[in-house]
Structure formats: structure tokens, C-alpha cells
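Listing S7. Sequence submitted for prediction.
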Amino acid sequence: MDGNIWQQVLQIAFLLEMINTVPFVIGIFDHPLQNLFIPVFLNCWLAKRALESMVNDFHRAIHRTQSAMFNQLLILISTIICLIFTFICGVEHLQRAGKKLSVFDSFYFCIVTFSTVGFGDVLPDIWPSKLLVVIMICVALIVLPIQFEELAYLWMERQKSGGDYSKQRTETERHVVLCVSSVKIDLLMDFLNEFYAHPRLQEYYVIILCPAEQDAAVRRVLRIPMWSHRVIYLQGSALKDQDLVRAKLDNAEACFILTCRCEEDRNAADYQTILRAWAVKDFAPSCTLFVQILKAENKFHVKFADHIVCEEEFKYAMLALNCICPATSTFITLLVHTSQGLEGQHSPEDWHRIYGKCSGNEVYSIVLKESIFFSEYEGNSFTYASFNAYNKYGICLIGVCPDDTKKNILLNPGPEHIMKPLDVCFYISLTKEENSCFKRGCKNSPKTQPPTSSAITSMGTVAIDLQELSIPSSLGPSLSAETNISETRKPNMVPVLELPDSPSFQTADMFSDQSKNPYQPYTGDEGSNDYVKGYPPDLPYIGSSPILCHLRKKKTPKCCMQLEKTCNHKDEEDVKAYSLKNKLIIVSAETTRNGLYNFILPLRASYRSENELCPIVLLLEHEPEAEFLETVCWFPMIYYLHGSIDSLDDLLRCGVSFAASMVVVDKESTMSAEEDYMADAKTIINVQTLFRLLSGLNIITELTHPANMRFMQFSAKDCHSLAFSKLEKKEREKGSNLSFIFRLPFAAGRVFSIGMLDTLLYQCFVKDYMITITRLLLGLESTPKSGFLCSMSITEEELCIETYGRLYEMLSSTVGDIPIGIYRTESQMLEPPETPLSQMSDKVSVFEEGKDPEEQDEAIPCELPDIQTHSLRRRSMQWASNLLGPWHAERDADRLSQQRGVLLSCSERLELTELVKKRMKNLGLSTHGFDRMNNNQSSHSYALINPSPDTKLELNDIVYIIRKDPLIKDERY
């Protein structure tokens, strides 16, 4: 009790109370003491203490916990005011004994003294005043730094945590919340670029909720004026309600939950995402939830989310389709990225311009009765509407959502589907209809439509684009904002006819040989006695979509699935022992993950012809699990080999020399590295080695980081690679989101990174149908009456069709197929497009000017020439260079250097080929038919999305087709 009394007595507040109160009481009883001066101005410190107590009680009453910064700021301001007030009153009173100072002079002297200026015009002239000045300066030097330090500490902590998103802002602003474990600069830029690519989202704010502190790169980006005013970083956890309150999640338009794919334990990363999704759904049930998950078996935990992207499902399905529909990964990646199609428009290469232009195509939707493009086709068949809309406007109608189903999206439902007013139409175009300059008053009414025998022309030279771009007329864009649809058109194409109901009309009249007809879909009448169509009896994980597939009547014995061991059913260990008709598809993976099931599923779908089924060999570094083998043993022609891509012997034993495609899946154990972008180092080197050994093999590689695509099929002396690198830098400087598309491996569909599909989830905020359409295209879902993605090759017989528009007409009017793009392979010049030599008028040496064009094409042979001939030619070139001067000598030296590089390359390939053949003989493998002398670098391939109708077809073009469901019987026939 005594301690408590002395503690109260010795407090500064009690002493101030005594100093200011006791003299008053004494003066009441003692008259002379009434003239005693009492420092009443010291009560300001008591008022400061009372104010702090009042503010604390107020915050406690309103249950406000986030008030540390406000309290500290209040304390600092009140302390400064009290110090100044005490100083002014003290100096003014003490100076009464000397040179009197007014209150203003005292205030002026206080400010000048505390600011350490000291002009000297106002000075205390007695020692009590001087002593007070010294005391006040000492107090200020002790108290104020402590207060400023505490305030600075709280401010730094607030900057790290990001502060709060005020409730007042939610009443006038819209925002979305991005929840991540850690923010990487690539992930952040992909999200911001894709999210803000849509015009109506420019006023939205992005709240990043992350438990980690900002790194230097992220902090630097968020300070850019473009992002600083609409991106807010909050450090916190989605599992804490107080952090969700800070982000005002219950008022957010949407919440994106992304998973860190660089974690060593991907299941652990998924578990964190699942908990975040549960916490968000519990806190804000009405908030639209977008979730990214890594492992397929974890997807069913977040089924309640509005939109889900499972990385394993999409990755393996895309890699599988790359084997039968080349560059499917490139096609889908370009389709889910928002672009204006301006990439490569200033390149001198024609294919750069048309490829960059077509990359701007996206999927849009509109209700039929509200559409200018499709409303006139109400009551017509889907294929009729698709072709005529393409022929008239250059847009590709790929699917509908019928008004009676509401949710089920159908890709190419075929001519059986009749367009209705409430049908939602999904189409591929450079821009959505609302942004085009076509006017409703300009469309043709049904009464004014030309008869079916009249010509409706192609609008291929016109594009919906507000900028004029120099593109060759033969490869023009699809629509034009400058052109009215009522303009005169050149007659070069007839419309799709509505086929009569009479059974006398048969497609066989046009295509008599169904087995050789590339347009006729597989009907399923023919088949092997060992195969049946059905749903897989054993699903690898909960939530797997049931897909009708080709299955074996009896499951394959597990011993027969292993290539490297003999069993009672086979004697040989070679892949030749199985007498396979089609070439192999080899998958190099670390373990038998459930995602491999999604690789097999599209390749064994029921709509694939049995003649098209390719054997699948799994090259696994670890022994497969028994549960996985039990699942895949029902599929035909599935084999595995325990080995590694590092070993040439393992590759040869699994049949790589007879393979059509080799798929290299990224390893989970190497996805994380101490240095960024080094996670792909081993994969890149292994693939490069394989490419050097087997240059003719189609190798499809998955990488962790998209930036590492430039190292695929790397050649330091390749002039084309250097030219494309410069082009990529230029596009990146212009702010393009698709600067990587001109890398040859990506354009050809030989490299893919799942990070490039992150934009699919972001696009769903505006286009909620994109995930469903992508899953249907990849074969991850099956909807009755919905079509599937396949391809057809253009042979010499189809070249008579001439143009892509005529092919569209033929396919849609006869078999109901809808083409959506072209995969084209072109020869590659020796010199890069932007070399000084290509701009010179004199491009050949003196001795090459007199040659015929055919002889000039053979100037650089692929085989080693005779040594004597090469020696004579070299001496002749040197002699000519001496005659023509130093410029010609330099030019000819460059040409000789290029020729020498080609010769050395041919020699190296010959040596590597012999090495592989000798190794095959040592292993007892047959080398019959082994010829991998193809020079893949002499050509380049690329995908065109929805090219113009007047695009000329070329030999070996591969056309992407959405084929109608073969289970639907066409009632017209």
C-alpha cells in the first residue's frame, strides 16, 4: 500500500497538480501570498495527458484496434505544442524582471531558437530566462527524437504491411484482391498486363495480399506511375480475418488465389491454396473466387470456387495434343492472351506480320438477337451461320450456348443445331463486335439477300482494326473498321447452302472414298475386335472428368507394359516386338503423376480413329506406382521403361529412333533453384543433346520459366536466332505482352511453359467462359453434341481448293467441320532478314551471277562435297576477291564463313548419326529405316489463328478443325 502511495506521489502529473493547486489554496487564507505567481501554463501538460486518455477510451469504445499510428502522431503533435507553449509563457514571465517581451516576441524567440537560426534581435538578458532556454532545449533534444523514432518505426512497419484499404473508398471504387504466397515480378506483370488490358477495368484497383515482404523488384515496379495509383500491396495472410478486413474482401469484386509453382513440395503449395480458398469463402461467401491449383487430385477440395485452373490437367493435355495437332500449345497460348495484333508489323518478313496480326485474335461472346453479325442467321443451321459470318465479316463462329441449356457450351454442334434468338454465340475475332464500326442499319435484310447461286465475296482484305497496317493483300486481316459491309465485293466464293432434307443428297457424291477422305469424320463403324469404347473403369483421382475413350476388352498385363523385360507374352525386349503400325509418342517424366492420365486421355478419346492411335511409351526415372498402372492398363498401346533422358541407351531402348514425337516434361525436383531461371538448366541441356543426336525428332519440351525458351535449339552462330532476338527486344520495348512469340521453337509448338497459361484465369474475370472452351478444345471435358479439336493436312489433291475460305466453305457445307487456323511450315533463308547483305542489290558473288536459279539453290549442299572441288572453289573465290577489292573480299569472306559453317554442321551430323547407329547395333537394336539427316533449321513453322479467307493454301499446311461430335447422327442425310 505504501508503495502505491509513493508511486502516485512521485508521478510528474501529481507534482504538476500540486504546483498549480497548492498556491491557490494557500492564497485564500494568507493575503500577502495572493500576489505569488503561479505557473498556470504548466496545466497544458495535464491537458495533454487527459487528451490521450480520452482518445484511448474512444478507440476502445468503438472497438478500433488499428490506431497505433494515429496515437503516436497525436502524442508527437501535442508534445511539440506543449513544449512551445511552455517556452513562450516561461520566457515572457521571467523577462518581466528585465527587458520585457511581448507574447509575440516570446513566440518569435521560441521558433528562432528551436530552429537553431538565432538572429540575435531578441535575446533574454537575465540569468533565469537564459537558464529556462537551456532547460527547454535539453528537454526538446531528449523528448522529440524519441517521439520521432517511434513514429518512424510505426511508419516503416506500416509501409511493410501496406496499411489498410479504407471502407470509404469501397463506396466509390471497385477493387479485386490477389492472394499469393510470394510475389514474383513475372507473375505480377503477367497479372497486371492481362487484367488491365480490358478497357472497362482501367478504374479497378488491385489489392495484393501476401504474407511476405516486398522484394526490391516488386517495390520498384509498384512505384511506376502506371501502377502506383491503382495497385496496393498489403502484407498479411488470407487466414487472418483482420487482414481480410484490411483488404475489404467482403466488398471486393473478385478474389484471385494463385499457387506458387516453384515450391519443391507441390502438394504443400496446394494445401496452402486450399486453406486460403476456404478462408476467403468463409469470410466473404458472395465474392467471386478464382483459384489456381497445381495437382489434379487436389482440385476437388476447391470445387466450390467459381473458376478453377488445374495446372497439371491443362499442361499434359496440351502437350498430348501437340503430338497430333502441331503447335496446339502455341495456338491456345495466343488465344488466351489479350493483344491488339500489332506484334511484328514493322518487320520486313511477311510471315512475321501475318503471324503477329493473327495472334491478336481472341474468343468473344454475344447473344444472337443482339448481334449485328449473327442475328440475320436466326433459324439457320450452325454451320451455315459459321461460314457465312466468316465469309462476310471475317469472324469464326466456333460454338454456342443454347438457350435451353443455359450453362453447357457446345463447340461446333453441327448442322443439326438451329440458331435461336437467345443462343449465346462464341466467335474468334480480332476485336469484339461492340468495338467494330459495323452498323446495324447496314446489314442485309433477309429479303435483300442474294440467292444461293449468286456470289458472296470474301472480306479477307478487311480487318476490324482502327490502325492501318502494311500487310500483303494475300495475307490480309479479317475485318476492317473502315469498310462498310454494304460495299461492293469481288465474287470469289459462294455461300454455304442449306442442304435439303432429301435423302438423295449424300456427301459420298463428293468424297467417294471415305477411308482416304481427310474431311470425313470418323464414324466408329470399323474397329479392332480387341478394342471397345467406354469410360475408363479406374479413375486416378477424385474429380476426374469422365471421357469416352478407346479401351481394351481385357486390361494389358503389367508385364507386357514394360519394355525392358521379357515375359510369357513376349520374348524380345525391343520395341519392335510389339509390331506397332504407327510411330511412337515418348514421354519423359520423373514419376507417374496423376497428370499423366490427362496426357493419355486426349490421345485415346473415342472420337479419334483407331488407325490414328499412336503407341505411348513412358520413360520414367522412378518405378511407376501400382495404382497408376492399374489405371492405364485399360488403354491400348501404353508402355513404360525405367530410365532417364540423360542416358542414350535408355532413349534407344524405348524406341526414340522410331518415334514421331518426344515429350519432355519438366521435373518437379528441379523446379526450384537458388538463382531465378536456373530451374530449367538440366532440362535445356538434355533436350539440346537429344536435338544434336536426333535432329529430325520432333521434341516438345516443357519449361518452368517462359524466358528460357530462347535457349531451346540454341546456336550461337545462327543468324536467324540473332535476328529474332533483336525483334523480341524491340517488341518488349514497345510494351508487348507477346514479345516471345517470334522465337522459332515457340512458334512451331516445340516448347511450352505452363506460366503462359496464367492469363487464362485472369481473362475469366471478363470472359467467364474461357476455361470451359479451353477444356473442350483440349479434350479435358466432353459435352453431348459438342465437337472436338483435330487437324487435317493439305496434300496435292487439296491444293485445287486454293484458298482457306474455300476450304472453310467445303468443310462446313459437306461434313460440318469448322476450321479455326493453319499450322504452316516454310523454308528458311540462309541469311537473316535484316542483314546488310540482304539490302544490297548485288547479293551474289561474281561467279554466282551467271548461274541459273536452280544452280544457285544448290550452291550450299547438305552433303559433304568432294575435297578437291571445294579446294578449287576456295582458290577461285579468293582470286576473285583480290580482283574486286576489299569490300568484295569482306563480303565473300562472310559468305565463305557461312558455307564453312554449313559444311561443318553437315559433317558433325554425319558423325553423330554414325555414333547413334553404332550404339543401336551394340544394344542389338535394328537400324533399318533410321535416317535422321533432316535439317530442321532449314525451315520454320508457325500457327495462324483465323486467317483471312483469301489466304492461299500451301502444300503440307495443317488446318486446325473443330469437328462435330461423331455420335450425333445427321438427320439431313
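Caption to Listing S7: primary sequence and predicted C-alpha cells for the chain studied. Residues 39-160 form a domain with the Helix Hairpins fold (CATH 1.10.287.70). The longest helix spans residues 886-922.
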